[in-house]
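Researcher: I'm preparing a figure for a lab meeting and need a structural model of a single chain. I don't have an experimental structure, so a prediction will have to do for now. The sequence is pasted below. Please return the structure as tokens so I can convert it later.
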Amino acid sequence: MRAGHGACSRTSPYPGGVMPTSHSLSLRTRLVRLVVSWVLVGVGVPMLVQAELGVSPFDVLNSGLSDTLGWSFGWCFVVSSISFFALGWALGAKLGWASPVGTVVIGPIINVVIDLIGHHEPLAVRIPLLVGGILVIATAISLVVSTDLGPGPSEMVMLGLIRRGMPIVPARWVSDGSPVVLGLLLGGAIGAGTVLFAVVMGPMVRFGLRRLGYVPRSREPQVPQ
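Model: Understood. Here is the structure written out token by token.
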């Protein structure tokens, strides 16, 4: 028994080798994860913007709406966010207080960080910015989803699809792919970074949720693989 317990302790940082679920975490831990996720989004989005290799999937839709309707990008973001929140809720996802609060908090962080990063011409700088931005945003998504305090608009749709029984990776592909398709139909533009983001975000979020011990609620128990 000792040998088995020792082996388990060496391979797992958790007592008894059992990873706790996020649903059992204290409110303090969940709030820390939430704040960290907001900061990471505030850093990751400017990295994608300044890389100038393609906006995030959700922003393809916002840019297409802006071009078609003549509205400001900010207003289009609000409208599309409300629409995705509503769709996710209709699919069964839970809308929390952190969803609208996060939108308000993240905006000023983005404004500060985007000026700090500045504009860069060499691809040797822009490609690392793109890859780094995707990694940072994937970490942020995993953290905010694991809190159960209120996800972002794309995450609402992803969680709603998971609630309907869809696995994590396909659910993320749909939640990222649908705004890209809609945005293209409305005249939005994509880049190589957009495609990369949409393809890799699903597996990265699945990995992040597994590391955090979070199992998204679905009609049937589901463990990230």
